[in-house]
Design goal:
The longest helix has 24 residues. The chain is elongated. Helix 4 runs parallel beside helix 5 and helix 9 packs antiparallel against helix 10. It folds into two domains: 125 residues, 3-Layer(aba) Sandwich (Creatine Amidinohydrolase, Chain A, domain 1), CATH 3.40.350.10; 213 residues, Creatinase/methionine aminopeptidase superfamily (Creatine Amidinohydrolase, Alpha-Beta Complex). It is an alpha+beta fold. The strands form six sheets. Strands 4-3-2-1-5-6 form a six-stranded mixed β-sheet. A three-stranded antiparallel β-sheet has the order 7-10-11. It has a three-stranded antiparallel β-sheet with strand order 8-9-12, covered by helices on one side. Bound molecules: zinc ion (2 copies). The site of one zinc ion has 4 residues, from loops.
């Protein structure tokens, strides 16, 4: 229950909350190790309670350790149940995130909106730094993604359909033990590579096409994220040049990573390489994002990020160049920030 104790410590520093009421599903999994609960109340003192509907109650009792498990019956008002259990008139509650309807219901149950405060940032900060067990799970998810990318590479040829490449890659990941994809697999060929998140086409790959593959696996709730860009058949000099620039940008950025470095500086390192090569206008997104229970989480590697890297962060480094009408290249790896610098968790094979 180290994670819960860490949150209690963060709450103690704030010195204003009686309980943290957790509703966000990734946050619930983070603290309980279980997927399928409705809410979790973490009081400053004493035991925490996980609220679970009848559908998942038996499984929760069997799998969750160190938490009270409270059944929420069908028709029961969850917010009133939480409020009754929390008691303490006049107390203030921290909340991570809630839809507007649920927020109103909770406010009514605890006796007014002024008793609630959004404090998702406390959990965001905790989740940024992965412990050894989390790193192990992400490491495994990355290995599975590598197997998927290897298969994608083998499947790409002139005449193959984009969806066939995606299907083969996903099948390979399943066989390698993936619990599911980390997000919808992207296979984009030809001019579609110029759209960073192209998913709706199903082009047939043609001679000389760029083929961009962006995929990830999930292993016990933890995710991975990798992108490679290949050329079907023979590549042109221009294609090779763009690929080299993106590869160099990624290499320089990863070399720049170590604890204490501002995330925005890592973004700027990659951006500078691409700008100096004359493609500055065509790197249209952030350099990277945190990966863990969600495929996009803190810290963020962008030009205006306020995050400072710490050992235990897991982030993607994914520079890209997208030329409208021509195609694009993105190279992405999931990277662990270590005491000494950075370790690539994806990318077991050369490209
Ligand atoms: Zn990706
Ligand atoms: Zn990504």
């Amino acid at each position: 229950m180290t994670k819960i104790n860490n949150l209690k410590q963060a709450m103690q520093k704030e010195d204003k909350y009686q309980s943290f009421l957790v509703f966000n599903s990734a946050n619930l999994t983070y603290f309980s190790g279980f997927q399928g609960s409705m809410a979790l109340r973490i009081p400053l003192e004493g035991e925490s309670t996980l609220f679970v509907s009848a559908v998942n109650f038996e499984q929760a009792k069997a799998e969750v350790k160190g938490l009270n498990i409270q059944l929420v019956k069908r028709g029961e008002n969850l917010m009133e149940t939480i409020a009754n259990q929390a008691g303490a008139l006049g107390a203030k509650f921290a909340v991570d995130s809630l839809g507007i309807e649920s927020w109103r219901a909770l406010a009514k149950a605890v006796g007014g909106e002024e008793k609630l405060e959004v404090a998702s940032n406390l959990i965001r900060e905790l989740r940024k730094v992965k412990d050894q067990q989390e790193i192990q799970l992400i490491r495994q998810a990355c290995k599975i993604a590598d197997a998927g990318m290897q298969k994608a590479k083998e499947t790409i040829r002139v005449g193959v359909r984009e969806k066939e490449v995606a299907a083969e890659a996903e099948y390979a990941m399943r066989k390698a033990g993936s619990d599911g994809v980390a997000f919808d697999t992207i296979v984009a060929s030809g001019f579609c590579c110029a759209f960073p998140h192209s998913t709706f086409q199903d082009r047939t790959v043609k001679e000389g096409d760029f083929v961009m593959v962006d995929l990830g696996a999930t292993h016990r709730f933890y995710r991975s994220d990798i992108t490679r860009t290949f050329v079907a058949g023979k590549g042109s000099e221009k294609q090779k040049r763009i690929h080299e620039v993106v590869k160099l940008a990624q290499k320089k950025a990863i070399e720049h990573i170590k604890p204490g470095v501002a995330a925005k500086e890592v973004d700027m390192t990659a951006r500078r390489v691409i700008e100096e090569a004359g493609f500055g206008d065509f790197f249209v997104h952030n350099l990277g994002h945190g990966v863990g229970l969600e495929v996009h989480e803190a810290p963020i590697l962008s030009t205006d990020s306020k995050d400072v890297l710490e050992a235990g962060n897991v982030v993607t480094v994914e520079p890209g160049i997208y030329l409208p009408g021509f195609g694009g290249v993105r190279i992405e790896d999931t990277v662990l920030v270590t005491e000494g610098g950075a370790e690539r968790l994806t990318g077991a094979f050369a490209f």
